[in-house]
Amino acid sequence: MKCQRCEKPATFHITEVVDSGVVELHLCEDHAREYLAQNEEPEPASSPTLQGVLAQQLKVQSTAEDLARLDQQACPVCGITFYEFRSAGRLGCPHDYVCFEEEVLPLIVNIHGETEHTGKRPKRGAGSSQQQTDLIRLRREMKDAVEAEDYERASQIRDDIKSIEEGA
Amino acid sequence: MEINDLTDRSGEWLRGSGPESDIVISSRIRLARNLAEFPFIRKCTDADRLSIEQSVHKSFDRLCDIAESFYVDVSQLETVDRQFLVERQLISREHAESDGARAVAIDTGESFSVMINEEDHLRMQVMKSGLDLESAWDQINQIDDAIESTSTYAFHERLGYLTACPTNVGTGMRVSVMLHLPALVLTRQIEKVFRSLQKISLAVRGLYGEGSQAMGDFYQISNQITLGRNEEDLIKQVSDVVPALIEYERHARNYLVRESSKDLHDRVSRAFGILCTAQTISSEETMHLLSSVRMGVNMGLIADIEIPTINKLFIHTQPAHLQKLRGVELDTVDRNIERAMYLRRLLQPNADDEESEKN
Prior knowledge:
heterodimer, A: 168 residues, mainly alpha, 8 helices, 2 strands, B: 359 residues, alpha+beta, 8-stranded antiparallel β-sheet, 13 helices, disordered C terminus
């Protein structure tokens, strides 16, 4: 069978369902592609990205100066800046939910429409979150101290880490 | 047990059994968890990633109590093996392509996998054939408890399980069902269906998750909201829409039979004919044709092929699978030849004596 629009063999057989019934089309690859491209409906608006939702929210919430100041803020535990979070769409540590609460909570409401977890909880409870936050911070400080070749401070921090780990 | 033992087989979710399995391929639930004493992946040092991997590895014995499992150091795998695990849906593309210490624990029946150091420290998933979210939840709940027995999760009294991305916070749970909807695609009603799903905050993705195209008319429907509803509610939200989708698809199939049965039969037969005789064929064309054949088998238009065989072909004709099955690295041109040969062998086992000598 030949393509209905040129001399090439028809390799695509398209069945169109229209209001008046069914329309058959026999097309070569090139014409099929052309036909399908013009018929394609626009992609459904894919769900907005986290970065997009956040950008929208910040536009409403703050002035350019506020945002510049906010971007500089860093989490005392993992060191991530707000700028890094909003460009990457990923947080740096559990403590970010606390230290960026003012921005993250409205974002959570935007996404989920809720702020209360009602599902499963860990059986052993949340642990002592202060200690775990300290561990994240201390490990980072130790790495910084080693990089700065401040070995005295590094060994001090290592002892602190050990005492928390053993106490836990 | 190791990766190579998986090659010839097909996973639990490809069994092609279970309720409504002509349309519902599989049910999947995943949980995202993080260990409280480490930063999220983005801020992890190499040493942190290694400590996380080692710490979770300790709970491996407890996973084995749930089902016999094996542990794979993903960072040490060849590219083709990582790609193989992606095609098998046992790890994500992100996990395959990232750097640093990372691993996956997989049960030998391939119904669950636990990825370590993915976007979150832990991404665990359970897959079941057909529509079976309840037993998927039972099992993932056990796996979560088993890992928690040796770890402390990052958990917030109000916000629930804390995740690297706030889109997963709360339950950290994504419930999805994978559906085969060829007739809704053919009758061009699929967009309409998707738009209505989006309105009730359900997401639609392709076969390989986020950003992947809907290859072979496979679609994953999943919850978008993870906070403020409990696990049972989230499961219900997804499973409640499935009967309607099945109904629409069946309706569209009946419509095709009623209005253009010859064309439908022709389309299915031609697809089958090409798959049985092609000498070189791309992965994309294979998926496209297999989709027609799968629908044809389910509608009784093609006899003598079992659905599990078709399900298996969707996965086994993908690039890494072909190379693993053949045991050599192949470029695109050679893969297309190998794929055609493999299809001929599985679909027409007796017609290809000449080829069978080579194998």
